[in-house]
Amino acid sequence: MQTRTPIKVRGYHIDLYGHVNNARYLEFLEEARWHFLEQQVEIDYLMKSGLGMAVVNININFRRGAFMGEELEVLTEMVKVGNKSALIQQKIVLKGTDTLIADADVTFVVTDQKAQKSVVFEGKLLELMQQWLKKD
Amino acid sequence: MQTRTPIKVRGYHIDLYGHVNNARYLEFLEEARWHFLEQQVEIDYLMKSGLGMAVVNININFRRGAFMGEELEVLTEMVKVGNKSALIQQKIVLKGTDTLIADADVTFVVTDQKAQKSVVFEGKLLELMQQWLKKD
Amino acid sequence: MQTRTPIKVRGYHIDLYGHVNNARYLEFLEEARWHFLEQQVEIDYLMKSGLGMAVVNININFRRGAFMGEELEVLTEMVKVGNKSALIQQKIVLKGTDTLIADADVTFVVTDQKAQKSVVFEGKLLELMQQWLKKD
Amino acid sequence: MQTRTPIKVRGYHIDLYGHVNNARYLEFLEEARWHFLEQQVEIDYLMKSGLGMAVVNININFRRGAFMGEELEVLTEMVKVGNKSALIQQKIVLKGTDTLIADADVTFVVTDQKAQKSVVFEGKLLELMQQWLKKD
Questions:
Q1: Which terminus in chain D has less CB density within 10 A, N or C?
Q2: Which of chain B's residues have a Cβ under 8 Å away from the Cβ of C54?
């Protein structure tokens, strides 16, 4: 399932160059991932199991500056589930268009918060991850 | 004791108006308060006692924009200890000058982290607070 | 006219203490002021006249921590227009309740961007400011 | 030439998970790139020529959480100069150790600010870029 998260560019997002600062995009992406997670079934299961999601890699392309007052949309979807990690793809576009501002591959693992170790996707957790995968 | 914390203005501090964004000053002030605390005696006592400092009011004047590449200094000193709250004064100046960028009164209380309640300054804690007060 | 701007607390808003960091509130307030301005008539006039708004003082009370996942609302209204400055009052509450998270008095001036000087509220500009004032 | 930029982890850097937020690392990296640039010869030439640097890709690995009070160091060096883009490698380590917190490949282009187009590295600009390349 792909989610769409709206964000409007404000004065405090802008940096020296007159467009949204690089680091802000990572906040926009995080905003959109929380939004994505809220839409998923049984996200509570994960939280209550003492498990947490930890991002291990972000590969982000900055395609075009985003400017004051522009309305953006962050498209978020899960595209791959591996043995111990999964991949979320996110695109930031001008709302209602295909104009790409930035796109990112975000790889995460699920960690046992107490043991501070990442866990293998199996059983209930694997099932959950597969439900999050996009359907075409 | 007054501390001086250096900060250099970088591209990501700047906003739409070409100078440091309002919200960033609060990060600069927090940076300087942590620096101030590190210089104080027995700060460990406070931390180990399950006590924490909570800011309850910030009154900040923005005097002059700060621009890309400028070197700032945050001057921090404690100026008053009351019954349940204390006052820290902070000034942001152009380094090595009296040119004022911003100045703020920051009022804080000390809270019992478990009880989530502010405590009265007495005994050891009061002593500590008084040591933090500026000496002229 | 009072505006209401929704904000949901996300992981990146949270700091060491487990609640929203002080500096973030200033971003929330700025977000809400842009939202407020968008709702005002003739905001374009101001922008096209080479005028800008500059915040000169923020006096903010932190009343209660805001926690992960909480839905907030920033209430914004203009309450006073002086000779050269005006006052906006902002409250951050738990959405749909009176529970106060923070409240702030924000004083701003209008500056001639070229001359880098604040201007007196008169003529068209004064008219505009008075339209922004809250109606009871 | 490799530069080393010190950063101390403060309360406002920390997020919900108790360690430095992903987006903050991008600010740390930017901080370190400005520091790197300051150390380079003839950086003024670039600025005065109406040229600017624009980051087009960041590929960052998050290796280990960074916690309150930890002293970090960002190591920055230029490692490759292509025809129209160049690559900076940055590592965030625990100060004075090899313990890796995060590492990133940062690809940038040089843009003609007026034309809003990236330029080919040739002549004086190519010379400059080659001077920035690390020497072993």
A1: C
A2: 17, 62
CA distances from B80 to A88, A105, A119, C39, C105 (A): 51, 51, 51, 43, 23
CA distance D60 to C46: 42
Contact of D82 with D21, CB cutoff 8 Å:
no
Q: Kindly report, residue by residue over A24-76, the tens digit of the pLDDT.
A: 999 999 999 999 998 886 777 777 888 888 999 999 999 999 999 999 999 99
DSSP 3-state of A116? coil
Q: Answer yes or no: are the C-beta atoms of D120 and D84 closer than 8 Å.
A: yes
Rg (CA), chain A: 16
Of A12, A22, A23, the CB nearest to B15: A12
- In order along its 136 residues, chain D shows pLDDT tens digits of 899 999 999 999 999 999 999 999 999 999 999 999 988 867 777 778 888 889 999 999 999 999 999 999 999 999 999 999 999 999 999 999 999 999 999 999 999 988 889 999 999 899 889 988 866 5
Domain assignment of residue D48, given as a range: 3-132
Residue of B13, B30, B57 best to disrupt the C interface, most CBs of C under 10 A: B57
**What's the token pair of residue A39?**
């839409």
Total-model pTM? 0.95
Helix (H, G, I), strand (E, B) or coil at B44: helix
Q: What number of C-beta contacts closer than 8 Å exist between B and D?
A: 18
- Catalytic site positions of D: 15
Give per-residue pLDDT as tens, B44-89.
777 788 888 899 999 999 999 999 999 999 999 999 999 999 999 9
Catalytic annotation, residues of B: 15
The yes/no answer to whether this complex scores an ipTM above 0.90 is yes
| pLDDT (0 to 100) of residue A71 | 98
Task: Kindly determine whether residue C11 and residue A27, on different chains, have CB atoms separated by under 8 Å.
Answer: no
The number of folded domains in chain A is 1
Residues of D in contact with B8 (CB under 8 A): 34
Give Cα C125 distance to the centre of its chain.
19
Residue C98 belongs to domain with CATH number = 3.10.129.10
Q: State the best of C31, C35, C71 to mutate against chain A, taking most chain A CBs within 10 Å.
A: C31
**CB pair distance less than 8 Å for D58 and A60:** yes
Chain A residues within 8 A of B69 when measuring between CB atoms: none
> Tell me, what's the pLDDT at D134?
66
Pairing outcome for strands C51-62 and B51-62? antiparallel
Q: How is D9-46 classified by DSSP, letter by letter?
A: --GGGB-TTSSB-HHHHHHHHHHHHHHHHHTSTTHHHH
